[in-house]
Fold this protein.
Amino acid sequence: MRSRLSTTMHIPVLSTLAVAWLVGQASAIDLTVSKTGGNSSSSLLYGIMFEDINNSGDGGIHGQVLRNSGFQGTSPGLTAYAAVGNVSIAQDNSNPVSSAITSSLKVTVPSGATGFVGFANTGYNGVPVLATTYKNSFYIKGAYSGTVNLRLVGTSSGIVYADHNITVKSSADKFTSHETSFKSTQSTDANNEWQLRFDASKVVGKSLNFGLVQLFPPTYKSRPNGLRNDVASFLAEIKPSFLRFPGGNNLEGASPSNRWKWNETIGAVVDRPGRQGDWTYANTDALGLDEYLYWCEDMEMEPVLAVWAGLSLGGGIVSGSALGPYIEDILNELEYVLGSTATIYGALRAKNGRAEPWPVKYIEVGNEDNISGGCSTYASRFTAIYDAIHAQYPELTIIASTTSSSCLPSTLPAGVITDIHHYLSPDAFVALFDEFDNWSRDHPILVGEYASTKGNDGSTTYWSYMQGSCAEAVYMIGLERNSDIIKMASFAPLLEHFDMAEWSPDLFGLDSSPDSITGSTSFYVQQLFSTNRGTTILAVTTSAQFGPVYWVASVSDKKVYYVKLANYGAAAQNVTVSIAGASQGTLQLLSGGEHVSNYPHNVSITPVTSHVSGKGSFAVNLPAWAVAVLAVS
Ligand SMILES: *[C@@H]1O[C@H](CO)[C@@H](O)[C@H](O)[C@H]1NC(C)=O
Ligand SMILES: *[C@@H]1O[C@H](CO)[C@@H](O)[C@H](O)[C@H]1NC(C)=O
Ligand SMILES: *[C@@H]1O[C@H](CO)[C@@H](O)[C@H](O)[C@H]1NC(C)=O
Ligand SMILES: *[C@@H]1O[C@H](CO)[C@@H](O)[C@H](O)[C@H]1NC(C)=O
Ligand SMILES: *[C@@H]1O[C@H](CO)[C@@H](O)[C@H](O)[C@H]1NC(C)=O
Ligand SMILES: *[C@@H]1O[C@H](CO)[C@@H](O)[C@H](O)[C@H]1NC(C)=O
Ligand SMILES: *[C@@H]1O[C@H](CO)[C@@H](O)[C@H](O)[C@H]1NC(C)=O
Ligand SMILES: *[C@@H]1O[C@H](CO)[C@@H](O)[C@H](O)[C@H]1NC(C)=O
Ligand SMILES: CC(=O)N[C@H]1CO[C@H](CO)[C@@H](O)[C@@H]1O
C-alpha cells in the first residue's frame, strides 16, 4: 500500500445515484440456484496479506512482547526502558551483544545503593499481563553471582502479577544468556511493565550490561520464537488459504540497502540485526523468513513469498545490469527455501532447524511496481527476474505486482498471475462489483490488497463500519463470481496495535490490555466468506437486478449449497432462495447500523447463526446493511 495521501482514486458518481434509487424499491427477490454446470472456484480464494505495519508484527502477532530489546532501527534511544531503584541506565554500544545486536543496556549502580535494583521494559504501550506462563530470556555481561528477580508489575498500581527468582553467575568478559519461565496472574489493563532486578549490594560502584531481553506468552502451536497464541488463534478462525508476505511497502525499503533482506531474518534472533522498517519504526525481524513459513504451515496456508525487485520507496530504482546481484540474491533465497540440504543455502536452512524444504509455490516479483516510479522499468525488471527464476524453478507460479499493462512486458508469460490493489470508499467498491466480468481470461489475478478506507464523503475511516464492510462483501461476491480468474484475494492491512497505528482501518487489532483482540466488521465478512466456500460457482436465475442486493451461489464437493448475499442499502430486503432438493442448514447473518463499528472491549457486530429449513426454498430476511451466508443441503 502507499501512504494514504498519495492515493488518488476515481469514485464513480453513477453508483451512488443508482444505489439511492434502488433503496426505495422493496420488492421480493427470487433467486433460483442452478444445480448443474458452473465454473470451478479457486481453492485459494480467501487468504491474508501481512507486513509489519502498525506494529502488527513486533507488538502484534509475534510472540515477543518487550520493546527495543536489540536497540534496532535508526533512533532506538531508551524507548520502553526505565530504571528501577537508584541506578542509571544507558544504551551502551561499546558492549555489543553480537555482531547483529550492536548495543546493550548498561545499568550503573551508585555507591551506597542497597536492595534490589535494575530496569523495566514497558513493552508496546504496556506489557500484556495474562494469567498464563511466560518464557523469559536475557543476556548479561559483568561479574554477578546471585539472585536475579524477574517481575510483571503494574506501572502505576505497583501490583505484582509475577515474581520469579533465578540464580545467575555471569562473567565480566562476555555475554551469557539465561532463560527461564514463570507464571503470572492477569492484570486488568495494559499499564504494566516487566522488571529485571538484582542485588545492588553486589554491584555498588559498578555496572552490569543486559541485552536482548525477550518475554513470550504461549506461542501458536508452541513454536519457539513463535506467534502469540491468542492472536494467531483468533486469526485462524478466518481459515485463510494463503499468506502474502513480507510486504507490501515493508519489502521495499527507503533505499535499496534498507530493503527487507531475507538473509538477515534467519537463524538465531541474536544474529538478526533488524532494520528500520518502511512504516516509521524499527523491525526486529524476529518474525523472519522461517517464522513466516512456519506460520503458513501451522495455519495451513499457501505461502505467497514476495521478493525484492529493484524498487525502493525513496526513489532508488535498481534496473538493468545493476539488478544482477539482487537477482542472484533472489536465487539464493529460493535455494534457502526450496533447495536440498546438499545445496549451500539448503544446508543453512537445515542448520537453522528446518531440513525439509518449504513448500513454496508462489513468488511475487516486487510490490505495486506501477507506482513509486517503478512503471517504466518494471517490464525489464520483471522479465529478468522471471527468466532467472523460471529457468531454475519452472514449477513455480510467478506473480507480477501490477495489472497495469503499460508497466508489464508486452507479452506476459503464460501462467503469470497479476496483482491488483484497491483502497476505496464503499460506493467505489460497489461500482467495481463487475470489475472482472469483462476482464481478459488470459492471466489469473491476485487481489493482493483491498479495503474500504474512506467514507463516501471522502472522510478517513479509522474503524471499519458496516457500510464499508458490506461494500467489501459486494466486491467479494464479484470476485467469487469470477473465481475462474480470481485466484486469491486478501484484505489489507491485517492487524494493528490500536494505539500504535499509522494506517487504518485494519482487519483486526489489539492493545496490551487483556481481551483486547478485536475483529472489525470486515473481519467477520472475511470469516463468513472464507469459512463457507464451494468448489463450483453456480449460475443463479432471477428477474431481479443486482443492487442493492448482491448474490453468488456455489456448491461444495460435499453437496452443501452456499448462497452469499449482501444488502448494500438502508432498507430491509426479502430474498427467496430456491435450491431444488435442499431441505435444511444454517443462515449466518452479519448486520448493523450503517456507521456502526466494533471497538476494543466493545464488539457489537458479530455473525449470528440460525437454523433454517425448507422444501427446496428458503426465505431470507435481510436487514439493512447486511451480509449473509445461507448454507444448506
Ligand atoms: C541515589 O544515588 C546517588 C548517588 O550515589 C545519591 O546521591 C542519591 O542520594 C541516591 N538517591 C536515593 C533516592 O537513594
Ligand atoms: C527473591 O529473592 C529475594 C532475595 O533473596 C527474596 O527477598 C524474595 O522473596 C524472592 N522472591 C521470590 C518470589 O522467591
Ligand atoms: C545478506 O545478503 C546481502 C546481499 O544481498 C549482503 O550484502 C549482506 O551482507 C548479507 N547479510 C548477512 C548477514 O550475511
Ligand atoms: C496502480 O494499480 C492500482 C491497482 O492495483 C490502480 O488502482 C492504480 O490506479 C495504478 N496506478 C497507476 C499510476 O498506474
Ligand atoms: C462489463 O460489461 C457489461 C456488459 O457489456 C457492462 O454493462 C459493464 O459496464 C462492464 N463493466 C465494466 C467494469 O467495464
Ligand atoms: C463461468 O465463466 C464464464 C466465463 O467467464 C462466464 O461467462 C460465466 O458466467 C461463468 N458462470 C458462472 C456460473 O459463474
Ligand atoms: C419481509 O417479509 C416479512 C415476513 O417474513 C414481512 O413482515 C416484511 O414486511 C417483508 N419486508 C419487506 C421489505 O418486504
Ligand atoms: C459500544 O459501541 C456501540 C456501537 O458502536 C456504541 O453505540 C456504544 O456507545 C459503545 N459503548 C461503549 C461503552 O463505548
Ligand atoms: C501515525 C502513528 O501513530 N504512527 C506511529 C506508528 O508507530 C510508531 C511506533 O511503532 C510511532 O512512532 C508512530 O508515531
Q: What stands out?
A: The longest helix spans residues 375-392. The first strand starts at residue 29 and ends at 33. The CA atoms of residues 454 and 461 lie 5 Å apart. Confidence is low (pLDDT under 50) at residues 2-25.
